[in-house]
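pls ignore typos typing on phone
iron/sulfur cluster + seq
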Amino acid sequence: MNPYQFLRHTPGSNCGDCGWPTCLAFAAAVTKAGVRADRCPYLKRDQLPPELLGGENSAAPDALEHGEEDRHTALAAYLRSKMQGLDLSSLAPRLGADWSATEPDLLCFSFLNRPVRLSRAGVFLDGDEPADPRDQILLYNYVSFASAGHARKPGKSWLGMESLPNSIAKIRTLATYCEERLAERFSARLEQLSKLCVTDLAAQPAAGQSADVAFIVPVLPCVPLLLLFWEAEPEDGFAAKVKVLFDQHVLDFLDLESLVFAAERAADRLLELDC
Ligand code: SF4
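k done
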């Protein structure tokens, strides 16, 4: 059984109760490293082969057993290994990526307006391998999800995190690592925020929104993010507020964990550019 087959037996809620950050990471640990499947209390046990519910494999790599960072590294390595079987030429148009017959193992696209070169050998952002394995996971997932074949292009409808399935645990994470940081930094500095969005992130102003500032930020070619900013109203007791919305089809391209991390990286980039 491969991780994606196992994934179908999980609820896909990425709740983290098993000790892994996502159901996919847990599926990789079970099927590739012999970790016991019953660490997830929500599995459909009666549909699983008994060997997956048996004893823990003593040969399980420590990387999968200890530490969140090691788990991320192990998942990134697994996702990189998955690239071997993909037909990158057919995936490129679905991803909004560039592909050339002269370099058939390479996809080129942008992540927050920075160049990505992703090949079967690895992934490079701005010419360097990302030091944080979560960046690698995000970029590999973008390619892997599109390979599932049902990736729909972004439409015209936007959804809050709370409207995406199984997202309750992620709403607070998104607020803490993205929305609240941006609201605090750019309160009373909307001109600067607008300048950075347009100049450095290639964002487009979004029409028809009620916010004081609204931009569509192309995080990845098929993963736009709608950034809404309401300025503080001290006389009414309101602090500045940011809300991030996602395209209705965004889960065709990323899982929730990677999606929240993509929004966090958008905030990181704006704060870094503002220094
Ligand atoms: S415990 Fe939660 S995160 Fe882990 S596999 Fe089960 S549903 Fe997914």
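The chain has ten helices and nine strands. The beta strands are 98-100, 103-111, 114-119, 122-125, 158-160, 204-205, 213-220, 223-230, 241-247. more later
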